[in-house]
Every structure is written in C-alpha cells, then in structure tokens.
Amino acid sequence: MFRFIRPVAGCVTLVVVAALTSGSAIATDEFPLAGSYTQNVACKGDGSDPAVAKVTISSQEIVSNVGVCTILDTKRTGDSIFAHVECKFAGGPLMGDITFTPMPDNTVEFVDRDMTYKALLYRCPK
Q1: Could you give all domains of the chain from N- to C-terminal order, each with its CATH number?
Q2: What Å distances lie between residue 8 and 2, 14, 16, 96, CA to CA?
Q3: Contact 26, 81 (CB under 8 A)
Q4: 62: left (phi over 0), alpha (psi -120 to 50) or beta
Q5: Which helix (H) or strand (E) is 2 found in, with range?
Q6: pLDDT tens-digit series, residues 34-45
Q7: What would the pLDDT profile of 71-105 be if each residue is shown by its tens digit?
Q8: What is the pLDDT of residue 89?
Q9: Distance CA 57, CA 108 (A)
Q10: Which residues touch 51 (CB under 8 Å, ≥6 apart)?
C-alpha cells in the first residue's frame, strides 16, 4: 500500500507545484496595471478629476463608476493582459473577458471581448 501512495503523493505534489509556478498567470505582487486611472480623459491627479472618469485597478478588482469587477484570472499575451472578470452592476452580475494593452504614450487601451466597450485609461500621478 505505501509503495503506491508515495509515488502518487509525489506526482500530485509536483503537479501542484507546477501549477503554482506556471508563467501564464500573473502573480498578485507583479500586477503591472495596479493603480489609479481616468478613462478617456487625461488624469490631473489633483482631486479635480471627474468622479465618473475614475478607475482603480488592483490585482483583485477593477472599480469604476459603473460597478466593481472581481478579477478571477489573468494571463499575459504578448504586451496585452487578458482578464476574466465577474462584474457587479446595478442591472445585475455579469461575467466577461477584457483585455488591457499598454500603449507607447503610457496610456492603457481597455476593450471587452465583444468590443462593445472601449476606453483609453490614463494613469494618475502617485
């Protein structure tokens, strides 16, 4: 019995370690988009930015005037970051996929999977 359990336990351990160290997911402390932004208007960061334009991104969620989206999974594809999210809106919950693409001018292009919503995010000064 022990001859069977040890190899199986060893294989399970290796699979778990491989899954945890996989390079396809973005680690929590490495999330490059974490910060405050405004959408479709340059951020002043002096408190005068319109509330409807403010967006806050962390490794766990995206908060905007429309609602809160919990980030369920992320992965990097080239320069873009793909996120699978669950959003809580006034009209009810919604699951979806979004893509963030950093642009050369230090903005971030945001688009949902169906391309029904697109925005340009401007990082706010710290």
Answers
A1: 25-123 (2.40.128)
A2: 10, 10, 12, 37
A3: yes
A4: beta
A5: helix 2-20
A6: 999 999 999 999
A7: 999 999 999 999 999 999 888 899 999 999 999 99
A8: 85
A9: 12
A10: 65
